[in-house]
Write a structure and sequence with these properties.
heterodimer; A: about 475 residues; alpha/beta; 2 domains; six-stranded parallel β-sheet; about 50% helix; B: about 250 residues; Rossmann fold; four-stranded parallel β-sheet; about 10% strand
Chain lengths: ~475, ~250
C-alpha cells in the first residue's frame, strides 16, 4: 500500500483501477488536507473573479464555439499554422504517437549535441513520458516550473495539471529542497523556499542553451505559439536558450490572434483565479538577435484524431487545460490526482485518458464520477463531461457484454436482470415481493439492515438500509381506490 | 386540474410514504390525481451505468405510458433530469422519428414536484405545518440538472413552525451517484463523511431534499451513527399539517 502511495503509477497501461488506487490516498490525512486546502484557495479566488465578469456565460459560449469550429476544421487550421510558422523560420514536425514524438525530440537534441535541457511546464511532455526517456538516452531534463521542480527533486508524481504539486505542503517542500539542495538551515517560509529555487534555477538558465515547452495555444493565422504562466521561469526558457522545442497537442490551435482575447480571459480566471496570467508569452518563428535561433514545433496526435471522429466525444478536445473541472470535482477533492493513473487526472482525465488509450485501458475511469455535473458548470469551454462519461460508460458495457467472465460479476448480472424486471409491471412487483422477503433475513429488530453480503456490503460498509416497507406505493394506491368505490 | 403521478421505482419500492405525502399534498391543493399501475422505472440507473439498451426500453415505456397525461408529476429531480437530458440521446441512438415526436410532445408536461407547485399551480404557501429544525440539501440534479434554484426553499420558507437552517457547501455532491456508491464505495464513503459533517453542523433534526436517493444515502449513514438527525422528503414536510404530521416526525 505505502509503496503505491510513494510511487503512484501515472501510466494508464499499468495503473491499478481507480477504486483500488484511491485506497491509500483516502487513508492519508496529510495528503487529503493538502488537496482540499489548495483547492479551496483556488476555488475561492476563481469564484470571485468569475463573478465580476458580467459576460462570463457569453465568453464561455464564444470559446466553446471557437474551439468546436477548430475541431471541425482541424486539418485546415493545422496546415495554415504549419505554413505560417515555417514562413517565419520555425520547423514543424508531425508526430503520430508518443514514440514518434520522443524520437523527434531526441534527434533534435542529438543534432544540438545537447546533454542537458531546460523545460517549461508542459503536459504533452508528461503525456509522452519524455523525461525518463531522455534520461535513458543520457540527457538530463531540468524542470523550471516551481511545482515541477518540487516534484522532480522530491521524485514525486504530478497530481494536478495546473498546480502539479498541490498535494505537497510547504513543510514537505522544505524537506525536499533542504535534502536535494543541501541547505540544512532552510526554513519553510515561502520567501526562503522560492529563493532556494531561484538560486537553483539561475545556474540552469545561464548554462543550458536548449529548452522544451508545451503550448497553451497555437495561432493558425500567424503561426504563433502562446504559453501562459505565473512565475516567469517560462519566460526565461523562452529568451535565453538558442534552441526551443515546443510539443503541442494538435487540438491546441486557434484560427486567429483575436481568438486569444476570448480564451485568455477564461483561462486565467478558471485556472488560477487571476484576471490575467502574470506572464503571457507569444512568439512567432525566430527573430534574429532576439530569443532562440532554432525553433521546432512538434504537433502531437497520440490518439487525438481518433477522438475527433466521434460526435459526442469530440468535445473532449475543446479542453484548454485550466483544471477548473478537477478543482470543482467532489471526487477529486477526496482523492487528489494520483488515483486516476494518468498525467491527466480529475473529470477531464476521466474522459480523456481512456480515449487516448483507444478504450483499451483505464475502463474504470469513466465510472470515477458521481455525475454531479459540477465540472460541466465551471468548464470555460462548456465540455459536457457527464455526457461524455455516459457515452464512454456505454462503450465499456458494450465491451463487457462480450466477456464471459462478466457473468460472474454480481453488479453486471444484477443490472442485466434489473433491465428485464423493469420491462414489465408484474415482474417489477414480483421482484419487490421477493426483495422484501429476502431482505427480512438481514433485518434487525429496529427495522433496519446493518450488514449485507456481496455488492450490498459495499453499501452497508458505512450506511444502514431501511428494510423494504410492507406495502409498496402502488399497492396502497390500489387499496385506496377499492375503498373509495 | 388533473395530473398523473410517476412515483418512480425507488419511491414505490423503498419510500411509499413519500408517494402518499405527494397524494395528500396535491389533493389538498385541489389536484385530481391518477396513477398508472404499470409504471416501473425511468431508466436512469441503467443509462447512468452504461446499459443503454435496457435504459432505452424503459424510456420507451415511459413515453408511451404518459402520452395522454395532462401533466406528469415526479417527486424526484434525478428522474426528471434523466427524462430531460438523457432521453434525447437514447432516442437518437436507438429510437426513431416517431418516438422522438411522442417524446417532444410529452416533455413540456413533465414536472418535478416543486416545479409543479411553484410553476404550474403558482403556490408557495401550501398550508403546511412542521415545527422542526430543518436543513435543505440541494441535490445535484435539482441544482445543476433542473436548475430548480430557490423553488424548494421558497416552499419550505412558507411552512409554519419550521426553523430552516442553511446547509454549508450546499452545492457539493453527497457521493451517492447511483451505482457509484457501490462501484466506488470508498470514495463515496469519503464524500458522504464530508457531507455528514456539514449536515450535523446545522444541528437540524431533519435533512430534506427533493430526491429520496440522496436522502437514503445520507439517512443510512445518519442512522448508522446514531446521529440524531433524520432525512425526510420535501413532499412529506409539505404534506404535514397541524392535525397530521409526517410519519418520520411522529
Amino acid at each position: 500500500m505505502s509503496e503505491q502511495l510513494d510511487h503512484p503509477i501515472l501510466d494508464p497501461r499499468y495503473a491499478p483501477p481507480f477504486p483500488k488506487a484511491v485506497l491509500p490516498v483516502l487513508r492519508n490525512p496529510q495528503l487529503r488536507k493538502n488537496v482540499a486546502h489548495a483547492i479551496d484557495v483556488i476555488q475561492t479566488k476563481r469564484a470571485r473573479l468569475v463573478a465580476e465578469k458580467t459576460d462570463w456565460q457569453d465568453l464561455r459560449s464564444s470559446a466553446s464555439a471557437i474551439r468546436m469550429h477548430v475541431l471541425e476544421n482541424l486539418g485546415a487550421y493545422l496546415e495554415e499554422f504549419e505554413k505560417n510558422c515555417t514562413a517565419r523560420g520555425g520547423i514543424v514536425h508531425w508526430a503520430k504517437d508518443a514514440e514518434e514524438a520522443r524520437k523527434i525530440v531526441l534527434d533534435i537534441l542529438r543534432e544540438e549535441k545537447a546533454e542537458e535541457v531546460i523545460k517549461i511546464k508542459t503536459m504533452t511532455s508528461a503525456e509522452i513520458q519524455l523525461n525518463p526517456y531522455l534520461e535513458e538516452q543520457g540527457i538530463k531534463a531540468y524542470e523550471t516550473d516551481l511545482a515541477e521542480i518540487i516534484l522532480q527533486l522530491g521524485k514525486q508524481e504530478p497530481s494536478h495539471i495546473v498546480v502539479p504539486a498541490l498535494h505537497v505542503n510547504r513543510a514537505q517542500v522544505r524537506e525536499i529542497f533542504s535534502e536535494s539542495m543541501h541547505l540544512k538551515d532552510l526554513s519553510d517560509e515561502p520567501r526562503e523556499l522560492t529563493n532556494a529555487a531561484r538560486q537553483y534555477l539561475r545556474g540552469k538558465f545561464l548554462s543550458i542553451p536548449t529548452a522544451i515547452s508545451g503550448a497553451n495555444f497555437l495561432v493558425a493565422e500567424t503561426g504563433s505559439v502562446a504559453v501562459v504562466e505565473s512565475e516567469g521561469n517560462g519566460r526565461m526558457c523562452l529568451t535565453l536558450p538558442k534552441t526551443m522545442i515546443t510539443i503541442a497537442g494538435i487540438e491546441k490551435v486557434l484560427p486567429t490572434f483575436k481568438d486569444l482575447e476570448v480564451t485568455l480571459q477564461l483561462l486565467g480566471r478558471s485556472a488560477t483565479g487571476e484576471r490575467m496570467n502574470p506572464y503571457n508569452s507569444i512568439w512567432t518563428g525566430v527573430t534574429p538577435g532576439d530569443g532562440p535561433e532554432r525553433f521546432h514545433v512538434i504537433l502531437l496526435d497520440n490518439g487525438r484524431s481518433s477522438i475527433l471522429a466521434k460526435e459526442t466525444e469530440r468535445q473532449t478536445l475543446k479542453c484548454i487545460r485550466c483544471a477548473a473541472c478537477m478543482n470543482s470535482c467532489p471526487v477529486y477533492r477526496q482523492t487528489g490526482g494520483h488515483a486516476y493513473g494518468s498525467v491527466y487526472p480529475g473529470p477531464i482525465g476521466a474522459i480523456l485518458t481512456p480515449q487516448l488509450m483507444q478504450m483499451q485501458h483505464a475502463q474504470s475511469l469513466p465510472y470515477a464520477s458521481s455525475l454531479c455535473g459540477a465540472c460541466y458548470e465551471v468548464c470555460p469551454v462548456k465540455i459536457n463531461i457527464p455526457e461524455v462519461l455516459l457515452e464512454l460508460r456505454s462503450q465499456v458495457v458494450n465491451q463487457d457484454r462480450k466477456k464471459l467472465a462478466k457473468l460472474f460479476d454480481p453488479m453486471h448480472v444484477g443490472l442485466l436482470v434489473a433491465g428485464r424486471i423493469f420491462s414489465s409491471a408484474w415482474m417489477f412487483h414480483t421482484a419487490q415481493w421477493f426483495g422484501k422477503i429476502g431482505l427480512k433475513l438481514f433485518t434487525r429488530s429496529d427495522g433496519w439492515i446493518h450488514s449485507l453480503p456481496s455488492v450490498g456490503g459495499k453499501w452497508t460498509q458505512i450506511r444502514d438500509l431501511r428494510a423494504l416497507p410492507d406495502e409498496p406505493f402502488h399497492v396502497w394506491w390500489a387499496n385506496r381506490k377499492k375503498e373509495a368505490r | 386540474m388533473r395530473a398523473s403521478l410517476f412515483i418512480t421505482c425507488y419511491n414505490d419500492t423503498l419510500y411509499p410514504e413519500t408517494g402518499r405525502a405527494v397524494v395528500s399534498l396535491l389533493e389538498r391543493l385541489g389536484v385530481e390525481l391518477d396513477f398508472h399501475p404499470k409504471q416501473t422505472c425511468c431508466g436512469q440507473m441503467h443509462s447512468n451505468t452504461g446499459f443503454r439498451g435496457e435504459a432505452f426500453c424503459q424510456a420507451k415505456r415511459f413515453i408511451k405510458m404518459y402520452q395522454d397525461a395532462e401533466s406528469v408529476v415526479i417527486p424526484s429531480s434525478s428522474c426528471v433530469a434523466m427524462i430531460r437530458e438523457q432521453y434525447p440521446t437514447l432516442i437518437h441512438e436507438l429510437g426513431n422519428k416517431e418516438l422522438l415526436k411522442q417524446y417532444e410532445a410529452v416533455l413540456p408536461r413533465i414536472y418535478e414536484l416543486s416545479e409543479f407547485l411553484v410553476d404550474k399551480l403558482g403556490v408557495e404557501d401550501v398550508g403546511a405545518y412542521f415545527p422542526h429544525r430543518v436543513t435543505y440539501h440541494a441535490s445535484c440534479h435539482s441544482l445543476r440538472g433542473l436548475h430548480l434554484g430557490e423553488k424548494p426553499l421558497r416552499l419550505l420558507r412558507k411552512v409554519k413552525g419550521i426553523d430552516l437552517v442553511e446547509l454549508p457547501n450546499i452545492d457539493r455532491c453527497c457521493g451517492f451517484g447511483g451505482t457509484f456508491s457501490v462501484k466506488n464505495a470508498e470514495v463515496s464513503s469519503a464524500m458522504l463523511t464530508a457531507k455528514l459533517q456539514d449536515l450535523l453542523s446545522t444541528k437540524a433534526e431533519f435533512a430534506t431534499a427533493v430526491d429520496n436517493s440522496c436522502l437514503m444515502h445520507q439517512g443510512g449513514a445518519l442512522h448508522r451513527q446514531y446521529a440524531g438527525m433524520k432525512t425526510i422528503h420535501l413532499a412529506e414536510i409539505l404534506a404535514s399539517t397541524e392535525g397530521h404530521q409526517a410519519e418520520a416526525a411522529r
